[in-house]
Design goal:
Layout (H helix, E strand, L loop, with lengths): L6 H4 L10 E5 L6 H11 L6 E6 L4 H12 L2 E6 L6 E6 L3
Parallel strand pairs: 1-2
Antiparallel strand pairs: 2-4, 3-4
């Protein structure tokens, strides 16, 4: 018997209390923060919360628009300690 998780455990969505997956797009200009988000979202199971760190002010409009176009859940902007914004997205599938 091994301690590795089975297929059902590997595909389980991230729980609501799990730490978000950070997509660090600081210093990148439009459209790169959204491109990075799309790449990470594509490889994430449904229910995963992604947090995009961005310094480009356009990300504040681009990320919610991407969520609407791709039918993902935009959870909003969260406060940060640094000189960047953080936008949360929950993957739908």
């Amino acid at each position: 018997m091994t301690d590795t998780p089975g297929p059902a455990e590997e595909q389980e969505p991230a729980s609501a209390g799990a730490a978000p997956v950070v997509v660090d797009a600081r210093g990148l200009r439009c459209p790169l923060p959204v491109i990075r988000l799309a790449q990470v979202a594509q490889d994430s199971p449904a229910g995963t919360v992604l947090e995009v760190w961005a310094t480009d002010p356009a990300a504040g409009a681009d990320i919610p628009a991407w969520c609407r176009m791709r039918a993902q859940d935009y959870l909003g902007e969260v406060a940060t300690d640094g000189g960047h914004a953080a936008y949360r997205v929950r993957t739908v599938g």
